[in-house]
């Protein structure tokens, strides 16, 4: 079996109007997991899109939202490609900032706008359009394909680990394409090979059963806000060193190869300073490689929110009865959420903060993929061929996702990113969009990945 | 001139229905300074109540809300009594917790309910009813009386200091009755002789021009919430010691006489633990006198509110662009807001927190009154006579108010509290009320204070 990708590209082009119509249909179905809005309807729609192509399709229930599973056989069923995607999206709010309705695919200046058009419905359509083109060119799929399309990615994928464990045999595959991907700010396609882990925690302290007038008890009663301040201060010093004993124990530093890959990536430091209005980076860090390294190979202890007492205009003289923090720890290989949170608890107790409670509200371990894998090289070469610029390899990215749960069950299955996104695409924000040019390229790239994976002698 | 207070009491009793009617009329006029609601109307109403009695009345404009000034001559115009009061009230919200409408005087179980019925409209009426009874008994007032009734007490009295400075001669008096007062939880009348000072501050730090995804920059970008934590932590250690250099320099400790007065006050420590659900007091403090002493003679550094980043349900992975704290410093003699805030600025700069900004949103210095004054003794004896239980003297109270601005201009004028309040009166809360019994007693007490002040040979 050899595949003429010029023919495949022609079919992709011929079908493109139909592809956009299918994307329009998919984004028109709201599916906000955080609000439990349209989830069942969207799972049904995605299942219909798979089954109308003849894929063996199941809507598989979990403790949370259902997973849509679809499987199709091909010419070479010794090879199985797993496609991980998600049909849920972020809330569209604030609605007044959208220039066109979030659930209505709208074309402006060569781009397609809608909630989920990039994250992740555009990628569901990308995979389908690529497989359609291969099927049309070859008469059938070149290999076995398995779709796992979940409905909880935007709320931390709480059900995906048990789902993978329970369906280990069903999901087994030789390679995987992850749910996102695209080009960087210079237009170079980027292949990302792993994700940091994360532990989300909600931390709180209560000092009284009600807010108390500060004139009465300001110099005699405990104050929850102060307890929170002191407890948090014990976690990280003002030079951004995390003080939890053992926190860094399992950190695997970036290798020579990792640093070499980071050196090829563009210098974003000036762009970061300008875009975010920063005066400096923490720890006095400077230089592209150092910043790139720290951003993905250093773990973090982040405060995402603080709440206590009176927050309105003017003042109110109270001792707040409670205080809370939303935090996320970004984890790097080989840290795990469970271990880090055990160390956090032990540290707080040791420091006299047994009254400071927390619960983990979600999380995953970090995941890495070996950059030396032939599959990774083929994906990068195919990207350069399609996008016209050299592909860059990110050894790991700073964000987080449930990739580790797949790696846990299938440690030998390489996972790559490939997609239609770009840095300006306003993912998770109003006016989310993808460029039409990138959507076409992502379909052609996906077709090449699956076609070559099916036929390469490797 | 001798005054038969039994006759005066009879007149107070005879007029009481009319007194309650006048209180009903006054609370029916909303006057929420924080919301600028009904202020002008209420100032006009109070002025009308003074002028219809023949007092020389002026509505005096300030940079904020007007002050109602009223003056009346009496038999002995060598003596002048100043009555400080305020016609503004706290917001009535949350409205759904009121058992009767906040602007409608309602009698239930021997008590009168309405917003402001205790703080402070009930005390305006108390002073008027006492003066009416004296006038009716004597044919005229026994001495000169000056009313200063301001409209910004509930928002920190920002205009009262310049008002007093500009009208120093107009306001000059030999003694003063402050705006509040009443009995303690055991029913003992309490005479309070001073107030702690306060400096309200709004403190903030900004680290970026927008919230940033924590997956991107969690280990490289500055985080405003962390900056706030570290800066606040530098102000007070976890043993509640305030760390600002020089903070305690001007503190005058409680004297032997102060401690002797505190010893006579009831032990509230168990009640505090139970009422507020506390497990302990700070610094391991125990014992009534020690707690009473710390509550009023120790300065405080209080956090009333913290705000940063995401505060909703679930999590959001952001690095917050800014973080704020609402704080109040309670000050004791001889601390001043200006000096303390200069020391705060110097400390933050010295500790590397020049990026942490603050502004003072209000404040007053502390105020003390000499407990050995004959006027104070007369007020206490009169209280015991009316309330039937020994009067207790609080050398200073933990709360704050603009008393210091009067002391600043009139250092020899003794100021006492006397009123109709009690600890269960829900001042500043829904269902604010006074007991009818206490209202009558407060009127009788006020009449005795003014009558004896006018006629005592001292």
CATH names the topology of the largest domain in chain A as Aminopeptidase
Q: Which class of secondary structure composition applies to the elements of chain A?
A: alpha/beta
Mean pLDDT of chain A: 95
Largest sheet of chain A: 6 strands, mixed
Strand order in the largest sheet of chain A: 1-2-6-3-7-19
CATH class of the largest domain in chain A: Alpha Beta
Q: Compute the gyration radius of chain A: what is it?
A: 24 Å
What layout of secondary structure does this protein have?
2 copies of one chain form a homodimer.
Chain A: H1 5-14, H2 16-27, H3 39-51, E1 56-60, E2 67-72, E3 74-86, E4 106-108, E5 111-113, H4 121-138, E6 141-150, H5 160-166, H6 168-171, E7 175-177, E8 182-183, E9 189-192, E10 194-206, E11 212-213, H7 214-217, H8 224-233, H9 256-263, H10 269-276, H11 288-297, E12 300-309, E13 318-319, E14 322-331, H12 337-350, E15 357-364, E16 367-368, H13 374-387, E17 392-394, E18 397-400, H14 403-409, E19 415-416, E20 433-435, H15 436-455
Parallel strand pairs in A: 3-6, 3-7, 7-19, 9-17, 10-18
Antiparallel strand pairs in A: 1-2, 2-6, 4-5, 5-20, 8-9, 10-14, 10-15, 10-16, 11-13, 12-14
Helix pairs in contact in A: 1-4, 1-15, 2-4, 4-15, 13-15
């Amino acid at each position: 079996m050899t595949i003429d990708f010029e023919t495949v590209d022609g079919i992709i082009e011929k079908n493109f109007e139909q592809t956009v119509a299918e994307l329009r249909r998919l984004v028109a179905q709201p599916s906000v997991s955080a609000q439990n809005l349209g989830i069942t309807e969207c799972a049904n729609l995605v299942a219909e899109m798979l089954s109308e192509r003849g894929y063996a399709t199941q809507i598989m229930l979990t403790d949370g939202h259902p997973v849509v599973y679809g499987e199709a056989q091909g010419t070479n069923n010794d090879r199985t490609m797993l496609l991980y995607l998600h049909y849920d999206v972020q809330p569209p709010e604030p609605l007044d900032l959208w220039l066109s309705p979030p659930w209505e695919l709208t074309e402006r200046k060569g781009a397609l706008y809608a909630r989920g058009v990039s994250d992740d419905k555009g990628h569901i359509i990308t995979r389908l359009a690529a497989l359609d083109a291969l099927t049309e060119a070859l008469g059938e799929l070149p290999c076995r394909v398995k779709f796992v399309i979940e409905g909880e990615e935007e709320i931390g994928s709480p059900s995906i680990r048990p789902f993978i464990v329970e369906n280990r045999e069903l999901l087994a595959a030789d390679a995987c394409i992850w749910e996102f991907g695209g080009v960087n700010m210079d237009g170079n396609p980027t292949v990302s090979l792993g994700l940091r882990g994360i532990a989300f925690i909600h931390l709180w302290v209560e000092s009284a059963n009600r807010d108390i007038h500060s004139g009465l008890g300001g110099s005699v009663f405990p104050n929850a806000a102060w307890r929170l301040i002191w407890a948090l201060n014990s976690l990280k010093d003002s030079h951004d060193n995390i003080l939890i004993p053992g926190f860094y124990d399992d950190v695997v530093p970036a290798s020579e190869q990792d640093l070499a890959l980071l050196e090829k990536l563009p210098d974003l430091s000036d762009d970061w300073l300008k875009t975010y209005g920063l005066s400096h980076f923490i720890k006095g860090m400077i230089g592209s490689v150092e910043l790139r390294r720290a951003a993905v190979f250093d773990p973090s202890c982040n405060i995402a929110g603080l709440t206590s007492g009176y927050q309105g205009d003017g003042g109110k003289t109270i001792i707040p009865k409670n205080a809370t923090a939303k935090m996320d720890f970004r984890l790097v290989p080989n840290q795990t959420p469970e271990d880090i949170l055990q160390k956090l608890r032990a540290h707080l107790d040791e420091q006299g903060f047994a009254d400071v409670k927390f619960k983990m509200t979600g999380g995953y371990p970090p995941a890495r993929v070996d950059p030396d894998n032939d599959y990774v090289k083929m994906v990068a070469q195919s990207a350069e061929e399609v996008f016209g610029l050299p592909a860059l390899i990110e050894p790991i990215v700073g964000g987080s996702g449930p990739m580790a749960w797949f790696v846990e069950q299938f440690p030998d299955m390489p996972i790559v990113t490939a997609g239609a996104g770009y840095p300006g695409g306003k993912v998770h924000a109003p006016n989310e969009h993808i460029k039409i040019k990138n959507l076409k390229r992502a379909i052609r790239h996906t077709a090449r990945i699956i076609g070559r994976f099916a036929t390469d002698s490797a």
